[in-house]
């Protein structure tokens, strides 16, 4: 029997990595983290999920749908410039033993997620944290305005 | 002749103050400020527009559609707890001379706005600014997730 829920229908339109990101964002919401998907911390870089915690914690989560997807990512070590902790999010079929041990691990699907291994913390300096948080705030508000009022041209 | 544009149709659904807020947000976007409408800085308070500038400036804008609307607002002086500058936004028919002189003034309609009088600046202390910016960031991202994925239940 086909699943005709809005979620099931919408999954035909998005990529496997984006589906993982949705599950990750749902779990982050449960942890009281506010998350942005496909976030661009600086020109030429895009992280799958950037999250801001209740005490100002900044986490980056990269979603990998396959070994090849992981192997193609040579940039992830740079992500610690914008976050206190870095996680991979993968599904149950992913060969998790190929992931570096000193990173966090989240098991995810399109409906939810679970932190399997907490990422080590490398706290951002204060000024850096302020700048990253401010950019996150401005980008989130501008995206929201783009939804509410498409004529604003943001 | 009736205006059948999406904007004209949508204006039947929103209040006069919200219409001013939309124009204000468009102008703020031109000034490179990212704005949130109907923002709740703390329980029991709601500001019409809260905006975050490129250098971290925090502005609050209250939209008043009539003299009565202004007279009913006894809370505005408290808004400086969350902002460096405070503005009123009113339309061309509003009796602007009843507004306090030591506040900013924005002339607005549903399509745009203009700053007529810059608000004086009372800069927030650093720790306060960080806390307000963080809350703005988290609230904006959560609202956005509510649009993208209504099932997340934020």
From TrEMBL, chains A, B:
Matches recorded under Pfam families: MmcB-like
Superkingdom field: Bacteria
Name of the molecule in the record: DNA repair protein MmcB-related protein
């Amino acid at each position: 029997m086909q699943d005709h829920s809005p979620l099931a229908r919408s999954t035909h339109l998005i990529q496997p990595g984006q589906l993982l990101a949705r599950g990750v964002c749902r779990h982050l919401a449960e942890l009281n983290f506010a998350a942005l998907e496909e976030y661009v911390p600086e020109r030429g870089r895009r992280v799958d999920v950037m999250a801001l915690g209740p005490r100002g914690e900044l986490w980056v989560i990269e979603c990998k749908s396959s070994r090849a997807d992981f192997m193609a990512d040579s940039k992830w070590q740079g992500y610690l410039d914008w976050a206190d902790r870095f996680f991979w999010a993968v599904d149950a079929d992913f060969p998790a033993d190929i992931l570096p041990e000193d990173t966090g691990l989240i098991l995810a699907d399109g409906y939810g997620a679970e932190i399997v291994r907490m990422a080590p913390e490398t706290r951002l300096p204060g000024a850096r944290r302020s700048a990253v948080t401010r950019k996150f705030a401005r980008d989130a508000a501008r995206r929201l305005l783009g939804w509410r009022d498409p004529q604003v041209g943001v």
